[in-house]
Amino acid sequence: HGKWYLHVRAKDRANNESQVLTVYAIMDNTPPTIKGLTDDNNPSQTKTWQWTGLDTDREISYRYLIDQSPDSVPQGSFNKTKKTMISEGDGLWYIHVQARDRAGNISLVYSASALLDNSRSIIYGLSDDNIPKKKKFWTWTTNDKNDSTLYRYQISKTLEPLISGNFSKIKEAKIISGDGLYYLSVQAKDRAGNISDIKTVSAVLDNTKPEIKGLSNDLSPKQSTVWTWHADDADDILLYRYLIDQKAQANLSGSFTNVTMAAIKDKDGVWLINVQATDRAGNISKVYSASTLMDNTPPVFDKIIDDIIPRKVKHWKWNAKDADSQITYRYKVDQFPDTVPSGTFTDIKGTDLSNVEGKWYLHIQAKDSASNISDVKTVFATMSTKKKGYYYDLKIQFYASSVKPIKYYRVDYFGDILATYPDSYAVIEAHTDNVGDDAYNLKLSQRRADYVRNYLIKTYKIPPYRLKANGYGETRPIASNDTEEGRQKNRRAGATIYIDYNYKNNE
Q1: Whether pTM exceeds 0.85
Q2: Domain boundary assignment for the chain
């Protein structure tokens, strides 16, 4: 290796010697070496390689091969090229270079790698979310294996075609308030500088409570009520819970369901339905209440009783009590005790009967606006154009000389009759047996009649002008005075009750 000299001298047969002729030759048996190639593990879109050869010969030629195999050997002719590049492809690429000097020494294959990345990142982890939420959190990643990918994002209520701004390592975003449809747009950039397509997804935010519709107060009496409701909300899938009670509720408990209808029946009074709604975002509405007036109790007639006092004219008036003030009636007057009135209910609340004889019946029914119909109320009246009064046996018995009765129960019943018929008047009659003289017995009977009269006035608050007391002594016996049993029957009291005009005519 190196520079070698050849020295030559010639001599002929005459022994003449020439001068020494010296020439040299450069010997090269060492292959060239290649410098400048190193592995490059930083991803890039393009890669430029440049190399040089070291050798005693300065005129070196090269050949190279670029592929994805680490052990390839370049083939073909050598040339002066010592720089090349690759601008397409992905993954790990190798350049293999050989050098040759003019002596024909061929170097070893020198290889170097470079990581090429010409593919845009694909963003993963994002998808549209159509279920409304109060808050939305997004996270994302890419298909790049390294962690040096950078991102930029934008949240907007409009779909934007472009994203601006710097890239950073942030790969999450959130929105914690608002209502409506929001868009998240994300773009990625890898270390090679490849910028991904924009990935855009949507999410529905809902921070507004539902508003329940369809409920209103209804105080028209009903036997049953059916409520239905719905709610206005950004979310079209809502759940509800409800409570039927007699008071409004500030809050409700229990599970929400998809029930949107409820009913009530067989109740009385004001009832309320309390309804609450929730959407899928978890917004819970206030409690909405609506009232209804339930009436499942038929009207009840005020006091209307049989009229035992004979009358020429009977004025019937009636009224029924009910939670509802709008009551209608139907009636029938006849001489049959079991008639059921038919026909239309009206506002008529009275009727008259006259110029007839015998026992007549009034049959009445009441109906409220909830269509509750009462049982038939039947009372009778004794009608007569001739008979002036009705005699009522008080069944009072007295001891021989006593003014105070032994028993009162029939007197008390008679007091109820007088209170029931405020247009009536009565004459109380008292009698004695024949024991004693006539004058004494007459006074005793008067005292007995006065006692009963005063008892009725005091106990039943009967106005005094409606009661007269007459004592008849022993003049009107109903049994023989020859026996104690007969005399006890004669010691008695009774009363005749009249309507006012008959009473006055009887005075």
Answers
A1: no
A2: 33-116, 123-205, 211-294, 300-383, 389-506
